[in-house]
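During the reporting period the student researcher (J.K.) took over the structure-prediction task from the postdoctoral fellow and processed the backlog of single-chain submissions. One of the processed entries is reproduced below for the supervisory committee.
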Amino acid sequence: MDAAPIYDPATYGLTAQQAALIASAQQLAADKFAPRAARYDREASFPTENYRDLHAAGLLAICIPQSHGGLGADYRTYALAAAEIARHCGATALTWNMHVCSTLWAGPLADDLQMDDATRAEHERRRAIHFRRIAVDGAIYAQPFSEGNASAVGAIAFGTAARPVDGGWIISGKKIFASLSGNADYYGVLCTEVTPEGTAQRRNTLYLAVPAAAPGVRVSGEWDPLGMRGTVSRTLEFADVFVEHDAAIMPRGVYFQAASRWPHMFLTLAPTYLGLAQAAFDFTVRYLRGEVPGAPPGKRRGSAVKQLAVADMQIKLEQVKALWFQAVSEARVDPTPEQRLRAYAAQFATMETANDLARLAIRTCGGHSMFRSLPLERIYRDSRCGSLMAPWTAEICLERIGRGALYQEGETDD
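J.K. obtained the following structure tokens:
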């Protein structure tokens, strides 16, 4: 049977345009991505064919404004589409997030932030270059973020440095767990512009598109993880890599402003795990109804024990769906303290519930469901990785929720 959308357009008040775009993403993922997902997972290979399909469908440019040749989707529309893709291939959805964020941050998110007229005009000119590469040429942008230190959570400046030179910058540093490594055309690198005095401050963060073929760019290390194997998140090294001024995806300091004022920019990993939660539930229902190809024949839905387990799973799924939808619907510049805490709660709940539902699915369906010829085993492994995702890991979300509930901004015990 055809899968209903995770969020019914009428029930959740989606526009006709939103519903059509989300349905298109879901259909593409069901028809093309799902049959390939096991191979990408087995080989730990990048879903190159899926990205060709995403470009053909216009979805590489989903958050690029229509005036620049994109689909003009807002934050929530993208998030809903990403969840639908993740139902069928979690690794594709997660890497697509890394690509789309380059356009989301430079597009609708940057439009909400403060810039003087000259800076905004220069940003408009530069982002048109990046948008054209994606919408017309099908260029893939990665977003290497992590460095193995506290920079990803905003506690210190990024260690990857950009030294100003005539015509641009020289970039040196390293990013770990860099999804799309060796497969992207450009790496959107967060780095700190070093002052003439040699100091590095977080407010001087730059977001620069580094061509994958630029001299000094190197991909290193192996990639053989527990889950999300198709992301191919190897290490990226930058050894005195020159980029021109037009490589800037956002102006100097605007990323720092965004991280402070647009916190939902870091919630874009969660749609993938919401989709995986839905996939675990979908599999369980279809398995017990005898509708999963390759599963043992016969229906198992008559057992009261199985029915109670499915009911428990649906309650958990509906709870996280409601919280997540509310949080992504509130995404905006300068959210209230309550909205900020709700975003942390949605991140934590989504990441934890995805794996919990996969665990319950295995227990409910039984031993045959664990075979690698069926998708549940992959869903379980992929879903386990969500709580580790920087910058909002499970522990960081709990810490910020607890402190935010007990302390008002600027309040101390002194």
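The committee noted the following: The radius of gyration is 21 Å.
J.K. will present the remaining backlog at the next meeting.
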